[in-house]
C-alpha cells in the first residue's frame, strides 16, 4: 500500500501551527528519506531526514549496548531548542523541532496525540 504523503503533510502542518513553540516537524523513513516535512525554510529536508535516520540508528545501538531495551524517543537539547525523535511504527520516525521555551510535558502530550494520527495513515 502506498503512503499518502499529502495526508501526512496535512497532519504535520496542523501539528506545527497548533502547538506552541514548535518550529517544525518531519516524518522520515528509517533509511533517511523524507515522507513529509514542515521544516523551517533554512533547513534542507533531505539533510535533516538523513541526520534523523543516523541519530535513530545510533540511538538504537546505544540502547542495545547499554541494555535499555527498545528506544522510543531520542532527545537532543541545545541552547537554541529541542529536537525530539519518536518512533512512529516500524516504517517511520517523527521528528519535532521546538524552541527552548517549549513546555516539555505539554509538547509530549501533543506528540503522542499526533503519533496516533500519523500511525493511522502509515498502517
Distance between the termini: 9 Å
Strand content: 25-35%
| Strand elements, count | 5
C-alpha geometry? globular
Keywords:
123 residues, alpha+beta, five-stranded antiparallel beta sheet, 5 strands, 26% strand, globular
Can you characterise this structure?
There is one protein chain. With 123 residues, this protein is an alpha+beta fold. The protein has 3 helices and 5 strands, in the order αββαβββα. The protein has helices spanning 5-18, 45-65, 104-122, and strands at 22-28, 34-38, 73-78, 81-87, 93-99. The protein has a 5-stranded antiparallel sheet, sandwiched between helices. α1 (5-18) packs antiparallel against α3. It is globular, with a radius of gyration of 14 Å. The chain starts with a helix and ends with a helix. 32% of the residues are buried. The model has no long low-confidence stretch (mean pLDDT 91).
Q: Can you lay out the helices and strands and say which pair or pack?
A:
Layout: H1 5-18, E1 22-28, E2 34-38, H2 45-65, E3 73-78, E4 81-87, E5 93-99, H3 104-122
Antiparallel strand pairs: 1-2, 1-5, 3-4, 4-5
Short description:
This protein is of the alpha+beta class and 123 residues long. The chain has helices at residues 5-18, 45-65, 104-122; strands at 22-28, 34-38, 73-78, 81-87, 93-99. Strands 2-1-5-4-3 form a 5-stranded antiparallel sheet, with helices on both faces.
Amino acid at each position: 500500500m502506498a503512503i499518502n504523503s499529502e495526508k501526512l503533510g496535512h497532519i504535520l502542518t496542523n501539528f506545527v501551527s497548533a502547538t506552541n513553540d514548535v518550529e517544525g516537524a518531519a516524518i522520515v523513513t528509517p533509511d533517511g528519506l523524507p515522507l513529509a516535512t514542515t521544516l523551517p525554510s533554512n533547513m534542507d529536508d533531505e539533510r535533516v531526514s538523513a541526520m534523523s535516520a543516523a541519530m535513530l540508528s545510533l540511538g538504537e545501538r546505544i540502547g542495545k549496548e547499554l541494555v535499555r531495551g527498545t528506544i522510543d524517543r531520542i532527545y537532543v537539547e541545545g541552547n537554541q531548542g529541542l529536537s525530539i525523535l519518536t518512533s512512529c511504527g516500524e516504517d517511520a520516525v517523527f521528528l519535532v523541532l521546538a524552541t527552548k521555551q517549549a513546555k516539555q510535558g505539554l509538547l509530549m502530550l501533543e506528540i503522542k496525540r499526533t503519533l496516533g494520527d500519523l500511525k493511522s495513515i502509515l498502517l
